[in-house]
Amino acid sequence: MSALTVDSGLYTEVRDWLYREAELLDDGLERQWLEQMVSRDIVYQLPLRQTVERARGAGWVEGTYHLDERYGSLNSRVARNETAYAWAEDPPSRIRHFVTNIRVTPGAADQVEVRSNLLIYRTRQDGVNPQILSGERFDVLRREDGALRLLQRRVLLDLTAIGTHNLSIFF
Amino acid sequence: MTYTTSGSRADEILRDLAEGLPKGEVPATLYGNRELYEREKRNVFARCWVYLAHESEIAAKGDYVLRKIGEDYFVVIRDENGGVNVLFDACRHRGVQICRADSGNTSHFRCPYHGWTYDTKGNLVGAPLWKNAFGGMDKSANGLARAAKVASYHGLIFATLDPTAPPLTEYLGGMAWYLDLVFGLNEHGVEVLGAPQRFVIDANWKSGADNFSGDDYHLGTLHKSVWEIGAFPVPFAANMMGYHIQASPGHSLSFSMAPDDSEPGPKFFGFPERLTDTFHSDLISDHQLDVARRSRVFVGNVFPNFSILALPMTEDGSNFPPTAVLTIRVWQPLGESKFEVWNWFCGYKNMTPEEKDRSYRAGLGTFSMGGAFEMDDTEPWITVARTGRSTAAEVLDLKLNYQMGMPGIGIAHPIKDWPGPGVVYWTRYEEGVQRNLFRFYHAMMTAEPGQWPALGFEQD
């Protein structure tokens, strides 16, 4: 099926869904994000990339990840940040998700495929040099009890070595 | 104090280090001085055996990976005869990089500048219009520069740029006994589970080496969150029981082990029982097998920057019990305040695909840049380096405290009836392991070219 145009109702719904998701994550409302927007069947992956010769493709290394999460492990990450000892995010980073280039294609039953470009801007303490992560997300949203939920997310970052001291954030 | 610009700050810091270590004091500036770092590149990284790759990463002829010694790039490639070559990534014509990918398989490297072409052993095999350009020139004298020595131990490939370096096994000294009981528990051995994760931290590489030499005490504070989410099965105070071992100068490690041999907790670092049934002492001693059997956690550092950790973990305590995670990592220096972590997960080759997958996921969720353990580690290391490069640390002569477990301090005490090599303490409330790291560091930093400090303890 071909991509939906901006005047499509589903396109608008998906766009607003992505903006709401970014808002929850930027506001540090990870628990709300997990419980209200993520499917129990989630597969959430950030694959590892290498520089390879053009003939060998884009460099994604089969079966190797920076993050490879399911609902239970995402819940562990959220729960960790709720403890009083989550030093990596306490004090919390300032994080901004910029979501652009949204492309929406109806998929299998109750599902919709979404590609979007992502720019994450992050600062900690009084640092003035932000950590910037640029990439593309390949998402599958599924309608569960009437509401769209994140069923699959594959985050392709434009990096081989990651220039941040951790990945305590959500993409 | 008066401030003078004469003399070398690096010399002063090393003098302070030598004077301070017997008292358990380390100058804070050790973690942030530029001049010291420049000397480390020459005296430590260009001389010591450094870890580059695992043999399973380059299993087939022509397989290669691009790695670093200090800040410099080297191609680690398996040649047509199955040998491992460590080649400086610089064309002999103008110094251009000849390897432009992180990994791959090839029969040759062609320089993109003028086309000089080398085989998998680094031999120059040709260049465009050879007769016109270079006819009569000796090809054999124009191969790629290479590491002075290359050797592997349990599949772990090390190299040194120093032709006067002792053989790898002599350099590892007592540490080899301990590597045996992590990597040599059966005839299959280990392999990497995928390509290395790489990330860059604004901190000093020695913070990684210091931490993995046996800093178990930080778990109770920095990693307190992981008990609250059920990621690690041994309570903090119980996990502090075990041995701290200075295996040989520079190389240190630590075991978490219960006082009682029959405790029901994790055995063999948490490897699944189906696998541990295949562990035996054909390749190692009964003593080594017994130490591995009783171990809940192994953590250690091979000087200067190669660390190993084996322990039972889970990324999702509500759904999966902890299983052994075996991670090996390199703290790759990029400056006095910047280093890159290279993080590999490993598994025994005879683990089932499901066991490997479980171990890999548990590792990703705990000891990786997005993992519950490691995401907190890098926070304090950033400010160790901030303090290290500060003017205040220099002007105030700030000394860091490395006194835990010294005579009269805490409960750690030396053990005499230990079956393995090295200086051994019972309980892990002890920082002699880190003092051992820095004693050897000092020895390398002050050694004359061609001279090697002692590689064994006097009492050995």
Describe the structure.
The complex is a heterodimer of chains A (171) and B (460). Chain A has 171 residues and is α+β, with helices and mostly antiparallel strands. Chain A is 22% helix and 43% strand. Chain A starts with 8 loop residues before the first helix and ends in a 14-residue tail after the last strand. The mean pLDDT of chain A is 94. Chain B has 460 residues and is an alpha+beta fold. In chain B, strands 12, 13, 14, 15, 16, 17, 18, 19, 21 and 22 form a ten-stranded antiparallel β-sheet that branches. A four-stranded antiparallel β-sheet of chain B has the order 5-4-3-6, with no helix packed on it. The model of chain B has no long low-confidence stretch (mean pLDDT 96). Chain B is globular. The chains are: A alpha+beta (171), B alpha+beta (460).
User: What is the chain-wise order of helices and strands of chain A?
Assistant: HHEEHEEEE
In round numbers, the mean pLDDT of chain A is 94
Strand content of chain B: 25-35%
Strand portion of chain A, in percent?
35-45%
Largest sheet of chain A: 6 strands, mixed
The Rg value of chain B, from CA coordinates, equals 23 Å
Lateral strand order in the biggest sheet of chain A: 2-1-6-5-4-3
Radius of gyration computed on alpha carbons of chain A: 16 Å
Give the fraction of residues assigned to helices of chain B: 25-40%
Mean pLDDT of chain B: 96
Low-confidence stretches of chain B: none
Distance between the termini of chain A: 27 Å
CA-based shape of chain A: globular
Assembly context of the chains: heterodimer
Specify the biggest β-sheet of chain B: 10 strands, antiparallel
Please count the beta strands of chain A (DSSP E, at least 2 residues each): 6
Largest interface by residue count? Answer: A-B, 38 and 44 residues
Instruction: Say how many strands of chain B there are.
Output: 22
Class of secondary structure makeup of chain B? alpha+beta
User: What structural category do the secondary elements of chain A indicate?
Assistant: alpha+beta
